[in-house]
Specification:
heterodimer; A: mainly alpha; 63% helix; B: alpha+beta; Rossmann fold; Jelly Rolls; 5 domains; eleven-stranded mixed sheet; six-stranded antiparallel sheet; nucleotide-binding (chain B); AB_hydrolase_fold (chain B)
Chain lengths: 320, 957
């Protein structure tokens, strides 16, 4: 029927070369004999050495994510973008008019960095946030590695938390990386002049850099709604594309609705309504009102999404 | 379980609702819901003429606040509108706690009578009559019998508020908005003077030092006149009055008011019984109509017209106004410029009234009063009528519109100065001087005044442009009709607040026959480096110069350029353009040429104010909301975590039993039952085979064992501990379920290391070497997993399951993808693994696999357990041994003769028997001894038979 039954444990199989595990099996047997299960087990039933709140340390998850090609590509793109922008300005040097940030972009390094943020706010940064948060759990599901992590066991809320923290770290890093590289490229190309705002006010480069940092800080807080939504989608689906794309689509939909002025004041409840209110930071006297509303809007959406994500993930049957 | 589940969903739903409610509360909203403000309409009869018995009725609505008695506010509408136009503002004020009375002025809306243009004997008396009515209402607060009342309104209504305040002592506070001081100066302005100082000495640019009439503002006058003639389908005076909210809404209301349906117009006329009026006069009083016709046809007013307009001007009454006055004017206003408000403010202040001046970035050519300004009006009445809230003080507030790049639209920066500097030269006014240069240029006044320069479309620029920025570019000068004088690019930005001054030389072109009169229009452009001109505020200053010497000797004229509140950016140039025509004004019709130059050694003087950005109040509400929302989220997460917490659920008796499953079921939402009430028990040292065809529920059972799937009923206990998602006891299980799960971009080695690191356990307890030995991948372990074959991944996954030598090893279909030697080796490994007291569970749909690997067996089918027991028992149960022989008959005899052998059956080439105590070897020996050739011998009842028997025919497809 199948191969003949053997009841010996001779060295024969090991001699087959491709299957060298018989010796290992012998070792296992030896170890097993000496094992004293009772002494190695804690009161909660876990094996000695296992602590739930030591599972999936940040540095391990960070390493898992940083080794991924998509992380490297994303960060690489953010490094490359300022260079591409610079080339674009160099090639199409003439006739930069029409005012505004485009015209100002070549005035100084800080302005160049500001411009790079400006062009990234409505889409590129949203993609970055959606990617880091939307891909994190769904990709594990698509690789089938999620079940092994959960059976290790990493408690589900802890897995979600650690992954969210790592995604947040990557997001903040990415959002800082682009302006940092832009600033470097910009200063080399256009010098260390002052930051000139579209409203004509200018501040020194040092203060300009502080302004850039404040803008990024606002954006980090503002994007919490995208992060929350992507986190919800990443636990709700097993396909990374669905989670990332879903969050992206929601952002685009919100931006489209925001264009419909007929919606009137209803628009202020759209999550993207306040996406450009960091412009207020460019004024010498900063009005915080709109930005505070933007942060509030984002936090309300973000918190609801995150709570839902926790709940959905906690209830979910892992079948991937 | 279901109760718990329902509970949790309730928790999250509750959380979401609480969050949304908290968000809605903390969410700062621009719009209060004022739809439920109670109101009532009524009609008030007033004398058509003072002292006359003939009555006309006014259409009025009163809005009531929540608590009464309360101070009252009389809210008047703009020209061409009706009480409907201000209903929104009325509700806002009523919401603040005022009794608000709105009405349609005579000649407008559904009120009867003729338009008297705020005639002191008509409209102003009407307003007093309305205050009389207010005094009788129980809802209105009174002091010593006098009602506490404020008056406000935009444009037409603003002028009324001034005139009522100047004639009726009962008015306690006013807030005139975008209105006029002197109709003569507003409609027939002149902004030039020969003398270098008269602007100062005369006290106001509005009170022009030129006794002669200026230049007729015909476009605006025409718009206003048609707005008062409802029989004509005229565009409304797009006067964004009070109530003209940001963009769209108000325009509609305005047009409703301005364009009553024919029925309304007809009814009003009929009921009014106003008698015959000249054709085209609409609802204007005959003398107003005649004055307009005269002005519009000649472009120059008669003395009677000047006197009439002066009679109708608030300037007559401002010296009597001593009540607190909030003077609001727009900097986008070519009808009533900042100079008109300046005159009002200064005259009231001289009379002893307390004055606060506010300029906003809007007006008759721009947006209506923004919410912040309406809020200030409310706060003004709050303090001065009701004694509520902080003192608004007398600081000067002005909005500077700034266009934002990237489609950001226009933003208004509101600045505050300690006091209103006024438009006249005072010690408080600072001037920044810029040299402007340009050669004296001959400029032609074309015959008939056409073509004419365009400086925006009065009343429509704001609508068309959408923003002051765009509107500022709606202009065109006619070549040959304009002289330009330009500054150097500004070294730094300057914010102009008020009326810039420039001194020009005007001379008659030599030899031309002339009247000695020149009409010129002065503008101040901002010129960007690429040559784009922007006209801030769209304003133009008309200048009528008379008495020019015929010999061509130049006259010097001081010009007050239009008042603006505007920031010119660094790098921009300033340009003074002097042209001979303007579409909006009645110009000279005889062709004539003048030469225009800049007076020597003079500068363009820009008034500036050291205003500071009103320190925007820290938005505590929104910040607290944001913090609160997050805090709430954290609390909910913690509550959820606390509910998730379980005390150790241990059955001590089972502490040494690897697996006890009882009544376990899994029913999916789709209704499919994957596992249906199975129970089984696995003891230490067993190698348990979970056997069943595909779809029997094996994998689902194993997933429930690992806490990946929640059972719908029943429970799994591992070493006595209840299995839940993430239960600590899972750390004693090593599992390989339904395929490997590796990060494809990492090597096999890296995968194992990262997996173990993720468990958080010490590296020394992982036993990597042994695991890698079992995987047997050799050097391939350093290659990326994405390059692995199915079998390699399988072995790596089994190695991963064995990391840390778990007490319970669960392998789902481990033989898939392995070749026979590897399968064999696997068996060996598992057998040895279990022999030390550890336990192995293997699932398979392959009979032989299980039979040869396992000590114990569970047969599953359609989610149920069909049989459990030792492999030996299941296999041997009731079955015998088969011998393939050459002589079956003979063999049967031999076997039957042996002790203990029973149920011998002979077949074609074999014989079957239950051997009982007889060892198979002995039976073979006996057969051979009897001369029978035994070709093959083995158990009859292999697992296949048993399996098929248990599963039955129903498993056949």
């Amino acid at each position: 029927m199948t191969e003949p039954h053997r009841n010996t444990s001779s060295g024969e199989p090991a001699a087959r070369g491709s299957v060298p595990s018989a010796e290992a099996a012998a070792v296992l047997e030896e170890r097993s004999r000496h094992a004293d299960p009772a002494g190695r087990v804690a009161h909660d039933g876990s094996i000695a050495g296992y602590r739930a709140n030591h599972t999936l340390p940040i540095r391990v998850e960070l390493r898992r994510q940083l080794l991924r090609r998509r992380t490297q590509l994303t960060l690489g793109l953010l490094v490359a973008l300022p260079v591409v922008l610079l080339l674009a300005f160099r090639i199409g040097q003439d006739d930069v008019s029409g005012g505004g940030l485009v015209e100002l972009a070549t005035r100084s390094g800080v302005n160049f960095a500001l411009f790079s943020i400006f062009v990234s706010v409505s889409f590129l940064f949203v993609v970055v946030v959606a990617l880091f948060f939307g891909d994190t759990v769904a990709s594990e599901a698509s690789w089938s590695s999620l079940k092994y992590l959960l059976a290790a066991p990493i408690p589900r809320h802890r897995l979600l938390r650690q992954k969210a923290i790592v995604s947040a770290l990557l997001t903040v890093f990415a959002l800082l990386l682009l302006p940092a590289v832009s600033l470097l490229v910009g200063v080399l190309a256009y010098g260390n002049g002052p930051l000139i705002s579209p409203t004509g006010e200018s501040v020194s480069m040092g203060r300009g850099v502080v302004v850039l940092l404040m803008i990024i800080a606002y954006l980090v807080l503002f994007y919490t709604w995208v992060a929350g939504l992507a986190l919800l989608l990443t636990v709700a689906t097993n396909t990374p594309l669905g989670a990332v794309g879903g969050a992206l689509m929601a952002s685009i939909l919100s931006q489209i609705l925001n264009q419909i002025t007929a919606l009137g004041d209803l628009r202020q409840f759209l999550p993207t309504y306040y996406s450009y209110d960091w412009f207020d930071l460019l004024s010498t006297d900063i009005s915080w009102d709109e930005m505070a509303r933007g942060v509030l809007t984002s936090f309300v959406y973000g918190t609801v999404f995150v709570l839902l994500a926790i709940q959905v993930f906690d209830r979910k049957d892992i079948t991937s | 379980m279901s109760f718990l589940a329902r509970n949790r969903w309730w928790l999250i739903a509750l959380g979401a609702v609480v969050l949304l409610v908290a968000g809605a509360i903390a969410w700062p909203s621009d719009d209060e819901d004022t739809s439920d403000i109670p109101s009532r309409e009524f009609r008030l009869e007033v004398p058509e003429e003072p002292g006359s018995d003939s009555l006309i009725s006014l259409d009025a609505t009163v809005y009531l606040p929540e608590t009464t008695p309360a101070p009252a506010v009389l809210l008047a509408h703009g020209f061409g509108g009706s009480k409907l136009e201000v209903s929104g503002d009325a509700r806002e004020l009523a919401d603040r706690g005022f009794v608000v009375l709105t009405y349609s002025a005579r000649g407008f809306g559904e009120s009867e009578g003729l338009i008297g243009l705020n005639s002191p004997d008509h409209e102003v008396r009407d307003a007093s009559a309305l205050i009389d009515w207010l005094a009788e209402q129980p809802e209105v607060l009174t002091e010593d019998g006098d009602p506490v009342v404020g008056v406000t309104g935009g444009s037409y209504g603003g002028a009324l508020s001034l005139m009522v305040a100047g004639t009726d002592d009962r008015v306690d506070a006013i807030a005139p908005v975008i209105t006029y001081n002197d109709l003569v100066k507003a409609l027939i302005p002149n902004s030039g003077t020969e003398d270098a100082t008269p602007i100062t000495s005369a006290g106001t640019p509005a009170a022009s030092p030129f006794p002669d009439p200026g230049v007729f503002k015909r476009f605006w006058a025409g718009l206003l006149f048609t707005a008062g003639s409802p029989s004509v389908e005229a565009p409304p005076v797009a006067s964004p009055e009070l109530g003209t909210d940001d963009e769209d809404g108000e325009g509609d209301e305005g047009s409703e008011g301005a364009r009553p349906t024919p029925e309304e117009g007809g009814t009003g006329d009929a009921d009014g019984g106003t008698g015959p009026t000249p054709p085209g006069c609409g609802r204007f009083s005959p003398e107003l109509c005649a004055a307009y016709v005269e002005l519009a046809t000649t472009g120059e007013p008669s003395q009677e017209t000047v006197d009439l307009l002066a009679d109708l001007s608030p300037a007559r009454f401002t010296e009597n106004i001593t009540v607190p006055s909030l003077v609001v004017q727009g900097s986008q206003d070519t009808l009533f410029g900042l100079d008109q408000a300046d005159a009002n403010a200064r005259e009231i202040a001289e009379a002893g009234g307390r004055v606060k001046v506010v300029w906003f970035a809007g007006g008759h050519d721009g947006s209506g009063t923004p919410g912040e300004v309406r809020d200030q009006i409310g706060a003004w009445f709050d303090f001065h009528l009701a004694g509520r809230g902080p003192d608004p003080g007398t600081t000067f507030e002005y909005g500077i519109p700034r266009s934002v790049a990237g489609g950001g639209g226009t933003r208004v920066r509101t600045l505050t100065a300690p006091e209103y500097p006024g438009l006249v030269d005072t010690a408080a006014t600072e001037f920044q001087r810029h040299r402007i240069t340009g050669d004296p240029t001959p400029v032609l006044t074309p015959a008939g005044g056409q073509p004419a320069a365009i400086t925006g479309l009065p009343g429509l620029s704001g609508v068309l442009g959408g923003s002051p920025d765009v509107a500022g570019r709606l202009h065109r000068d006619v070549p040959g009709q304009v002289a330009r004088f330009t500054s150097e690019p500004l070294a730094e930005a300057v914010t102009i607040t008020g009326t810039p001054r420039v001194r020009v030389q005007v001379s008659q072109a030599p030899g031309a026959a002339t009247s000695g009169t020149a009409v010129l229009f002065a503008k101040l452009y901002e010129v960007s480096p690429n040559g784009t001109r922007t006209l801030p505020g769209q304003g133009v200053s008309p200048v009528r110069v008379t008495g020019l010497p015929a010999d061509g000797t130049p006259m010097e004229v001081d010009i007050a350029l239009p008042g603006i509140a505007y920031t010119v950016d660094s790098g921009q140039r300033l340009e003074v353009a002097i042209s001979t025509t303007d579409q909006a004004y009645a110009s000279v019709t005889e062709p004539v040429t003048h030469v225009v130059g800049i007076a020597e050694n003079t500068d363009l003087a820009l008034p500036t104010t050291q205003g500071e950005h009103a320190t925007s109040p820290v938005p505590w509400g929104a910040l607290a909301g944001a913090g609160g929302v997050v805090a709430l989220g954290v609390v909910l997460a913690l509550v959820s975590a606390w509910r998730r917490r379980h005390s150790t659920d241990l059955v001590p008796d089972l502490e040494d039993v690897p697996i006890v499953i009882s009544g376990l079921s899994k029913r999916y939402a789709s209704g499919f039952t994957a596992v249906d009430g199975i129970s089984l028990r696995v003891e230490r040292g067993q190698v348990l085979g979970l056997l069943g065809p595909n779809g029997a529920g094996k994998t689902t059972t194993l997933r429930m064992l690992m806490g990946l799937i929640r059972p719908t009923a029943g429970q799994v206990r591992v070493f006595g501990h209840l299995v839940r998602p993430g239960a600590p006891v899972l750390s004693r299980i090593g599992a390989f379920v339904e395929g490997s799960g590796f990060l494809p971009h990492l090597s096999g080695m890296e995968n194992l290391r990262l997996y173990w690191a993720a468990t958080g356990r010490g590296r020394e307890s992982a036993h990597f070497e042994e695991a890698l030995e079992i995987a047997g991948l050799g050097a391939a372990v350093h290659r990326k997993v994405s390059t692995y074959s199915q079998g390699m991944r399988q072995r790596l996954a089994i190695a991963q399951a064995m990391l840390g030598l778990p007490d319970l090893l669960v392998l789902d279909e481990p033989a898939n993808g392995l070749d026979p030697p590897q399968i064999h080796q696997m068996r060996e490994v598992l057998r040895r693994y279990a022999s030390g007291g550890r336990t192995v569970v293997v699932s398979s749909h392959l009979l032989a696999e299980v039979e040869q690997t396992c000590t114990h067996l569970v047969v599953m089918h359609r989610g149920r357990v069909m049989a459990t027991g030792e492999v030996r028992d299941i296999v041997a149960g009731g079955h015998g041994y088969t011998f393939h022989v050459d002589q079956p008959e003979r063999a049967a005899e031999v076997l039957a003769a042996m002790d203990g052998v029973s149920e011998v059956e002979a077949h074609d080439s074999s014989v079957q028997a239950l051997l009982g105590p007889v060892r198979p070897g002995a039976a073979v020996t006996e057969l051979v001894r009897a001369g029978i050739a035994v070709e093959q011998a083995g158990p009859t009842g292999r697992l296949e038979d048993a399996f098929l028997q248990m599963v039955g025919e129903e498993s056949a497809p």
